Amino acid sequence: MPGAPRPARAPVTAQVPAAAQVPGAQPPAAHRPVTAQVPAAAQVLAILRYLARQAGPVAAASIARDLDLPRSTTYHLLATLSDAGFVVHLPEERRYALGVSAYELGTGYTRQAPLQRLARVPLATLVDRVGQSAHLAVLHGREVIYVIEERAPGRPPLVTDVGVRLPAQLTASGRAMLAALPAAAVRALFPDAAAFVRRHDSGPRTYAELRRLLSATQRAGYASENGEVTPGFASVAAPVRDHAGHPVAAVAVTFPVAEGDPERLAPPVLRTAAEISRRVGGAP
Fold it and tell me: PROSITE patterns in the record, alphabetically (predicted)?
């Protein structure tokens, strides 16, 4: 989207904020049972994933029940995780929560930026294929944060610079990710009219309008916007999903309205999002 001209530069990436998560979001596999035949390492990972998806500390009995683990095995694994600092026992509450070592894993992920590293080549390939600029964004509350920008030769600067935040409901990237979330998670993000920040007097004004927009996005298989971020420019986007199908990012192409066709651009965008999903170990 237009701005002051600037020299061409190499693609830039930004760190994904550790807090770039959506409150209330529950991936579809949140309570996938773990059988007794699964190795101990897989059981440990299942416990950590389970705790990470809870709103607060959880009793050992609940962990055992929801993951279909024997109680004795659950207590043994929790003790091992506690000794290593990945889990902490809260004796007054008789519950377990994630520990400091789990937090260190999250900050290590942020420092190493594997999502950006894995997405850069597919994003550059997409730009070469369609001849328009592309970017990768993550959802942070009700906003999207742009973490990679790949500008096509001869294309104008965009407001979607690395590090820029925009209202999620106005952008194609945001809509792609919101449409991939459970309805309850979206509702938690947009509880009232005050949550709907606007630009250029366009975009959804209410949750009902947003819900209709996201339903249309789900039916189409991709998200789009036309002039709602910058007049004269449009975007097409698709979500990047993790192993549980949860949207961790979105790939988008932005183009002058007079030069692009969303239906033509959607297939390569979808293929790129699927390729990045595969690279991060997710579901395309």
Answer: HTH_ICLR, ICLR_ED
Mind listing the pLDDT tens digit for each residue in 88-115? 999 889 999 988 888 777 766 656 567 8
Mean pLDDT (whole number) for 116-120: 87
Instruction: Determine, yes or no, domain membership for 25.
Output: no
Q: Round the average pLDDT of the chain to a whole number and report it.
A: 83
Residue-wise pLDDT for 268-282, tens only, equals 999 999 999 999 887
**Cα–Cα distances in Å, from 27 out to 16, 54, 58, 86, 111?**
19, 11, 18, 21, 24
Establish if 284 belongs to a structural domain: no
* CA atoms of 118 and 140, how far apart (whole Å): 20
- The parent domain of residue 48 ranges over 40-108
Rounded to whole angstroms, how far apart are CA atoms 280 and 113?
A: 11
Overall size of the chain counted in residues = 284
| CATH, residue 88 | 1.10.10.10
pLDDT at residue 162, as a whole number: 79
Question: Is the predicted pLDDT of residue 71 greater than 80, yes or no?
Answer: yes
| Rg, the chain, Cα only | 21
pTM for the full predicted model = 0.68
